[in-house]
Input
Amino acid sequence: DQQVKQNSPSLSVQEGRISILNCDYTNSMFDYFLWYKKYPAEGPTFLISISSIKDKNEDGRFTVFLNKSAKHLSLHIVPSQPGDSAVYFCAASAIPGILIQGAQKLVFGQGTRLTINP
Amino acid sequence: SAVISQKPSRDICQRGTSLTIQCQVDSQVTMMFWYRQQPGQSLTLIATANQGSEATYESGFVIDKFPISRPNLTFSTLTVSNMSPEDSSIYLCSALQGLYNEQFFGPGTRLTVL
Output
């Protein structure tokens, strides 16, 4: 059962335009969501996160939107740059900020390969 | 954020052998985790490495196959035992600092089993 889904395996965007990566989840217990970027031969790098009490979080060129009723989140990158070309994973966890067993478990989507074309 | 290193970065192993992967964090962390990323797949949590006690394994993963140690707050090892080609994956360790679930990942160990 895939609890976190990224239905687009790949996305190609022109440099300078907006990149929108989507993620859907099924578990209503998920309360905290994260986006990671992964280059080849490197581990995932944390990008941005959002808790369920918000519907938007912005950090520079990166904005994450959360629609709890639709169980959907998206990552917007604007403007897109060639260095943004990477695989992007969304991840979800149940209870942020609580050090109890299992609360920190991250469930990842399958990833979306973003290519920024010059 | 914590800086995490892993050794080896890659290895090619024969079926039936075992490989131990080391994960070193440059600062003390509250929790450490081991993930697997099979080719073309997402990251799947293998286990939570608990300091001073047995690791907590996720469904589908067992201690006999993936023994884990965590002797202190900055170091952990994962052993992939009695390997088969199906174990060919990238193995990643991660660490959690503070209270929020922003786990930081090591660069991964790319394992190929022949």
About this structure: Chain B has a mean pLDDT of 92.
